[in-house]
Amino acid sequence: MGDLSELQYLSVYDNNLNGAIPFQLSSLRKVRYLDLGGNFLETPDWSKFSSMPSLTHLGLYLNELTLEFPSFILTCRNLTYLDLSLNKLSGLIPERLFTNLGKLEYLNLTENQFQGKLSPNVSKLSNLIDLRLATNKFSGPIPGDIGSMSNLQLVELFNNSFTGQIPSSLGQLKNLQHLDLRMNALNYTIPPELGLCTNLSYLALAVNQLSGGLPLSLSNLSKLNDLGLSDNFLSGEISANLIGNWTELESLQIQNNSFMGNIPPEIGLLTKLQYLFLYRNNFSGPIPSEIEKLTSLENLDLSGNQLSGTIPPTLWNLTNLLSLQLFSNNLSGTIPPEIGSMASLVAFDVNTNQLHGELPENISRLVKLNKFSVFTNNFSGSIPGDFGKFSPSLINVSFSNNSFSGELPHELCSGFALEELTVNGNNFTGSLPACLRNCSNLNRVRFDGNQFTGNITKAFGVHPRLDFIRLSGNQFVGEISPDWGECRNLSNLQLDRNRISGGIPAELGNLTRLGVLSLDSNELTGKIPTDLGKLVKLFNLNLSNNHLTGEIPKSISNLTELAYLDLSNNKLTGDVPQELGRFDKLLSLNLSHNDLSGEIPSNLGNLFVLQYMLDLSSNSLSGTIPQELGKLTSLEILNLSRNQLSGRIPASLSSMISLRSVDFSDNELT
Amino acid sequence: MAPISLILSFFLFISPALSTNSEGNALHALRSRFKDPTNVLQSWDPTLVNPCTWFHVTCDSNNHVIRLDLGNSNISGTLGPELGQLQHLQYLELYMNDISGKIPKELGNLKSLVSMDMYQNKLEGEIPKSFANLKSLKFLRLNNNKLTGSIPRELTTLSDLKVFDVSNNGLCGTIPVDGPFRSFPMESFENNKLNGPELQGLVPYDFGC
């Protein structure tokens, strides 16, 4: 290759060349353009490379180069274009880069591991147009000398550890179009001099520690397409004068700051806006009705502010909107039928406001809808009966914490795509939509706190991703299907306070991720399955208030994570298993109101973190109160009443220094 | 080579919407200070509207956190000031872990606290004087840590305090004798460098501390 002495142009990019770059390449004295990018080339011994005085364009990007900045490049004094991006180069940038390569117009070191400070000598690259140093480990301040590099059009320093102020000298860069300083540790305020860079179309300062307000001089940046200031500590108001000239703006992102005051009506002048993110600030006052003029708007997020008043009726004219997020504000009023005209709407989230009234029928027309969330408002009435029928992409639906009534729409899950369905805390009645059975992506389901009366036996099927389900506090009937045992991802299963009958299926023992199992306050019969002892992650087991019979299975003692065990108010017989003494995490034990007999095991004294209660009352326990109970020094409530305990109350119980309530009544104690 | 144009999508920090619930955020901050090798905190999803369905968190009917039960959970790391924001917390159970660092003075803001069990950890530094603000406190168990300094005399104002165990630490100075301290057994103070009960009638003098 090195013998092609007349070669001027060599381009082998985007191949699979590997191995070290051969030094013979450097003997191509006439080569002006060399592009080896997009291969798997490794670091050679750069000292074997001779100088390449004709070289003007050198591309070594996207290879496997490691170690220090290649020294031979520093001798190629005619270089105008140098791209070393996307390698694994490290160490400091040699000063000779700045002093020798004065003809450079394009310098790209993006995505390497270069470190140290950016030398003020960078300004010696007086012809530089493109400066790209992003995604490295540069530190220290951005040198003010950068302001004298008057040819600069693009500066990318993002994703480094630059500190200190944004240099005000940047205001001298009249040709600057693109400035990206995101993801550094820059602090202090945004210099007003940036308003002098009137050719700026892209200004990105997000994810830094900038404070103070936006200088009014930024209003001069009339060519801005993209303005990103999010995730800083910026404050103050957004004034009409500031934004009035930003008529080319397509993306305005100032989320996660401390901006305050009203959203100026002049926002309507920014007619090219596609993205408007003002979320998580302290904006107050109304959403200006002028927002209807933003006809290109696709993503609107005003969430997490203190906006008040009603949603302006004009807002529903934004028919190109894909995502509307207004949650966590103080908005009032209703959702009008005009919402149906937002035909492209994918995500709609108005949770945690003071909206009221009924949901309009037209929400059924939103065929592209993925997410629909109205929780924690004052909505009432029924959910429109066709909702979901024409929206097969529905993934996330939440109606929770409102005053909704009536039945859930029958075809809510017509596309079987639902992952999250939460309707807790309403007055819903009737049964569950039949399509739920086939929603194999279900992850989180809450129906608790309603008046559902349906039959749950076959309402659900096998849901391999189901993690959390709570049906508590309704009037569900039917039985617990063995299919629940196939929902292997379940960590929380709560069916308590319903009218569920039948037995507890042994298949529940397959739910090895289960942490919480609440079946209490139902009409369950039969025995506690031995297989429940396989639920080794279970920390909360509540089977109380049922008609369970038989003995407490010894396998229960395998549930070593148990913190709360409540089997009270059943018809359990047999002994209190002494194995229960192994629960070294148990905080509360309630076996009261059963037909348990035999003695109180002395091992219960080993439940040394038992704190909330030990209730064995209303059983047929006999024998003496074990003195070992005196070791329960954290226990607050002890109830052994209504048994047939005999003998004396042991003196050791005086060590139970945390007791605030004790009941030994109705026994045969002496 | 064509410049990689950073399209608008680069900007878009469309992260899942973190809840604005302050108690959830406080617990989320606590989690970030902890190392949790057995994934006890796996259910702590900060995008949920409140922390009331998180495992080992108990809320009251107004969705305020009243219990935090993380005893014996293999947790290490430190505590932070945000824990003090849980204004309705009654039971703070962090015992039998490997928690190190100092006890944040902000825990004195937990005005509803009934029980604080942080025994058997690696906590160091002093018992904050701010604990005197825990007016509802009944149970305070800090035994088996590496606490130093003296027992703040201000704690004698906690009239509901029934159990106080600071045994097995490096505490120095004298043992208060006023208020609830009249009834605590000597075992509550053993294995420290304490100089016995303070002598009444003399000018308080924390010697050796």
Which labels suit this protein?
heterodimer; A: 670 residues; mainly beta; 28-stranded parallel sheet; 17-stranded parallel sheet; elongated; B: 209 residues; 6-stranded mixed sheet; 5-stranded mixed sheet; 13 strands; globular; disordered N terminus
Describe the structure.
Chain A has 670 residues and is mostly beta strands. Helix content of chain A is 1%, strand content 27%. In chain A, the strands form five sheets. Chain A has a 28-stranded parallel β-sheet, with no helix packed on it. The longest helix of chain A is centred in the first third of the chain and has 6 residues, at 95-100. Chain B is mainly beta and 209 residues long. Helices cover 6% and strands 22% of the residues of chain B. Chain B contains one helix and 13 strands; from the N terminus they run H-E-E-E-E-E-E-E-E-E-E-E-E-E. In chain B, a hairpin with a 5-residue loop joins strand 2 (57-59) and strand 3. The longest helix of chain B has 12 residues, at 22-33. The model of chain B is unreliable at 1-15 (pLDDT under 50). Classes of the chains: A mainly beta (670), B mainly beta (209). The interface between A and B is large, with 53 and 29 residues.
Q: How is the topology of this model organized?
A:
The complex is a heterodimer of chains A (670) and B (209).
Chain A: E1 9-11, E2 18-20, E3 33-35, E4 40-42, E5 57-59, E6 66-67, E7 81-83, E8 88-91, H1 95-100, E9 106-108, E10 113-117, E11 130-132, E12 137-141, E13 154-156, E14 161-164, E15 178-180, E16 185-188, E17 202-204, E18 209-212, E19 226-228, E20 233-237, H2 240-243, E21 251-253, E22 258-261, E23 275-277, E24 282-285, E25 299-301, E26 306-310, E27 323-325, E28 330-333, E29 347-349, E30 354-357, E31 371-373, E32 378-381, E33 396-398, E34 403-406, E35 420-422, E36 427-430, E37 444-446, E38 451-452, E39 468-470, E40 492-494, E41 501-502, E42 516-518, E43 523-527, E44 540-542, E45 547-549, E46 564-566, E47 588-590, E48 597-599, E49 613-615, E50 620-624, E51 637-639, E52 644-647, E53 661-663, E54 668-669
Chain B: H1 22-33, E1 34-35, E2 57-59, E3 65-69, E4 76-78, E5 91-93, E6 98-102, E7 115-117, E8 122-125, E9 139-141, E10 146-147, E11 163-165, E12 172-175, E13 193-197
Parallel strand pairs in B: 3-5, 4-6, 5-7, 6-8, 7-9, 8-10, 9-11, 12-13
Antiparallel strand pairs in B: 1-4, 2-3
